[in-house]
Design a protein that fits this description.
Elements (H helix, E strand, L loop, with lengths): L1 H16 L12 E7 L4 E10 L2 E10 L2 H14 L4 H15 L25 H19 L5 E2 L2
Helix pairs in contact: 1-2, 2-4, 3-4
Length: 150
């Protein structure tokens, strides 16, 4: 179990140090800003849709390791998915990080996102992990107001 925990920590550190899809997306047709006042995380999610799917997605901003890794891995996980699939994945991810879903019982579609299962041991970090997801949902909904975890 310790080896698995180390692997998960390494994956989170890798994504926080070298986040994937960390850029502003020119020509985005969806965009939202998110802020976690408790931790100071601030990010913007950009997306472009094609045929009711997320064709391209990126993010930009600053934050703690959990927030950046979550945003990075989220962009990889949702590319090509429909808004309904994103909602379903978000619900499962949120259940995972809040301790309502055991990482060993997580649906296969969560894939690498199961590394965030350990966040449930640190309730204050749940907001860090879910901020990118709330921001993505706001971008999909066309929300004008920034998302806040408070």
């Amino acid at each position: 179990m310790d080896d698995l925990r180390e692997l998960y920590q390494e994956m989170i550190l890798d994504h926080s140090r070298a986040p994937r899809n960390f850029q502003r997306l020119d020509g985005a047709d969806g965009r939202a800003d998110g802020h976690n006042p408790l931790c100071g995380d601030r990010l913007t999610v950009f997306l472009r849709r094609s045929e009711e799917r997320i064709a391209e997605i990126s993010f930009h901003g600053s934050g703690c390791a959990i927030s950046l890794a979550s945003a990075s891995m989220m962009t990889e996980a949702v590319r090509g998915r429909t808004p309904a699939e994103v909602e379903s994945t978000f619900a499962e991810f949120q259940a995972l990080v809040t301790g309502q879903l055991d990482p060993g019982a997580a649906p296969e579609r969560l894939g690498k996102l199961v590394v965030f299962g350990g966040v449930r041991q640190f309730p204050v970090r749940v907001k860090c992990a879910t901020l990118p997801w709330h921001t993505l949902r706001a971008a999909l909904a066309g929300a004008a107001q920034p998302v806040s975890t408070e």
